[in-house]
Design brief:
Largest sheet: none
Number of helices: 5
Radius of gyration: 16 Å
Order of helices and strands: HHHHH
Strand content: under 5%
Helix content: over 70%
Number of strands: 0
Length: 120
């Protein structure tokens, strides 16, 4: 199967799963964004397992594209962000790992505010 199709299929499935969590929690009328919190946590758990599997015994490229890039990317981009930060940390690039965390949060919040301002 072509790589783009694996990413497409995994991403679609991940997005539907994330949306389903929101539907399941919607009747609870929660103040905290638990659906996103749960999706991010589960995606990080899954991508951690996949990364461990890849390190220990190798993960075939097709499975990596389908599950890590596609599913986890569709379920939560936070999982990819977390792996990239961990990789920087593991490589001894502590400054870049911290900059990635702080920079991502700062830029994303700033972009959100900019988007709100532009659309108002």
């Amino acid at each position: 199967m072509p790589p783009f199709l694996l990413v497409f299929l995994g991403g679609g499935l991940g997005s539907v799963c994330r949306w389903s969590i929101g539907l399941l929690l919607q009747p609870l009328h929660l103040r905290f964004p638990w659906a996103t919190f749960v999706a991010n946590g589960l995606a990080c758990l899954l991508i951690g397992c996949l990364l461990g599997w890849q390190i220990a015994q190798g993960l075939p490229e097709q499975r990596r594209l389908l599950l890590s890039v596609g599913f986890c990317g569709g379920f939560s981009t936070f999982s990819s962000f977390t792996v990239e930060t961990w990789q920087l940390w593991q490589q001894g690039h502590l400054f870049f790992a911290a900059a990635n965390v702080l920079g991502t949060l700062t830029v994303c919040l700033a972009c959100l505010l900019l988007g709100l301002k532009i659309s108002s």
